[in-house]
Design goal:
The structure holds two protein chains of two kinds.
Chain A (H helix, E strand, L loop, with lengths): L3 E4 L2 E4 L5 E7 L7 E6 L6 E5 L3 E2 L7 E6 L2 E6 L9 E6 L6 E2 L3 E5 L1
Parallel strand pairs in A: 2-11
Antiparallel strand pairs in A: 1-3, 3-8, 4-5, 4-9, 5-6, 7-8, 9-10, 9-11
Chain B lengths: L2 E5 L3 E2 L5 E8 L8 E8 L6 E7 L4 E3 L7 E6 L4 E6 L8 E12 L3 E8 L3 E5 L2
Classes of the chains: A mainly beta, B mainly beta.
Chain lengths: 107, 125
């Protein structure tokens, strides 16, 4: 099983600032990685797949990068609606596995 | 546009079987590029993939559930179902159904692009 580790667990950021979230895979997964956003009481929402490809309707302030074992999600200018929990997920192999999440909170 | 919705009992007794159904509103329910999944999330915790069923009826499960899971498909009703046997308090969670789409464009991509709102299942006597 591919283990996904996210850091930090919580990120305190002011609106308008940049947020950088990290995700590490326990083995090389090429660019077989997706990112999701989850707000309280809601189901996850797909942001990024293929490590860097934005899903339909996702604003350009969200960008992803990385390959192999190290990945990054960057939110360039945080908006109020971006405060949420973010999960990375690998689809290199089954079982599909998710990171434990990074909570982006208002500083 | 794809809509998914979970349904089933919100309370299950320990040692019994948890049964949920996901109803899908989509034209391409039988598409071979769609995998129909169950994912769960204990309160305040992360996401755990449970398993999927393809339109062919083929299934794949998370080994962590140690053979307690069955996912089945009813194409005529555009539904797929989850059964988890011998439940304990550790099975208490929000259960989501989700579509995983496979897309090929020089690379193969898989992503969970549609999710139901989730249904809370509590295991308690």
């Amino acid at each position: 099983e591919v283990e996904m580790t996210q850091s930090p667990a919580t990120l305190s950021v002011s609106p308008g600032e940049r947020a950088t979230l990290s995700c590490r895979a326990s083995q090389r997964i090429a660019t077989n990685l997706a990112w999701y956003q989850q707000k309280p009481g809601q189901s996850p929402r797909l942001l990024i797949y293929g490590s860097s490809i934005r899903a339909t309707g996702i604003p350009a302030r969200f960008s992803g990068s990385g390959s192999g074992t190290e990945f990054t999600l960057t939110i360039s200018i945080l908006q109020s609606e971006d405060f949420a929990v973010y999960y990375c997920q690998q689809y290199y192999d089954w079982p599909r596995t998710f990171g434990q999440g990074t909570k982006v909170e208002i500083k | 546009q794809v809509h998914l919705r979970e349904s089933g009992p919100g309370l299950v007794k320990p040692s019994q079987t948890l049964s949920l159904t996901c109803t899908v509103s989509v034209d391409s329910f039988s598409s071979d590029t769609s995998y129909w999944n169950w994912v769960r999330q204990p309160a305040g915790k992360g996401l755990e993939w449970i398993g999927h069923v393809k339109s062919s009826g083929n299934t794949r499960y998370n080994p962590s559930l140690r053979g307690r899971v069955t996912i089945s498909l009813d194409t005529s009703k555009k539904q797929f179902s989850l059964q988890v046997t011998s439940v304990t308090a550790e099975d208490t969670a929000m259960y989501f159904c989700a579509r995983e789409t496979y897309f090929y464009d020089s690379n193969g991509y898989y992503y969970f692009d549609s999710w139901g709102p989730g249904t809370l299942v509590t295991v308690s006597s």
